[in-house]
Amino acid sequence: MAKKAMIERQKKREKLVAKYASKRAELKAIARDESKPMDERFKAQLKLAKLPRNSSETRLHNRCQITGRPKAYYRKLKMSRIALRDLASVGQIPGMVKSSW
């Protein structure tokens, strides 16, 4: 189980990303537009830098929704391999059985 502080920090980042997503997209579009004057593009870049660091989508890290584990994460199932195995062993996941031979 991950530390609760790390899980809460991740939730806070997710909220910030959602809040500033449109603003970041607009500023990035202005900064990348070659047809705009250089000073306008530079101002957009400065405004982008003033936004909170955690509002960037690259600061997010995939975590297991059950345990909060950051490693061995299956994107399709949104859980770690350990949580997947535990649920499969108990019979919580339909169609999945623990193999034995």
From TrEMBL:
The family database entries (InterPro entries) matched by this protein are listed as: Ribosomal_uS14, Ribosomal_uS14_bac/plastid, Ribosomal_uS14_CS
Molecular function as annotated in GO = rRNA binding; structural constituent of ribosome
**Record's Gene Ontology CC terms?**
cytoplasm; small ribosomal subunit
Keyword Oxidoreductase appears in the UniProt entry: no
Organism superkingdom: Bacteria
Q: Which PROSITE patterns match?
A: RIBOSOMAL_S14 (PS00527)
The entry's keywords: Ribonucleoprotein, Ribosomal protein, RNA-binding, rRNA-binding
Is Repressor there in the keyword field? no
Picking any one GO biological process from the record gives:
translation
Q: In UniProt terms, what function does this protein have?
A: Binds 16S rRNA, required for the assembly of 30S particles and may also be responsible for determining the conformation of the 16S rRNA at the A site.
Kindly state the subunit structure of this protein.
Part of the 30S ribosomal subunit. Contacts proteins S3 and S10.
**What family does the Swiss-Prot or TrEMBL record give for this protein?**
Belongs to the universal ribosomal protein uS14 family.
- Name of the protein in its database record: Small ribosomal subunit protein uS14
Ranked from the top, the taxonomy reads: Bacteria, Pseudomonadati, Pseudomonadota, Alphaproteobacteria, Rhodobacterales
What would be the name of the gene that encodes this protein?
Answer: rpsN
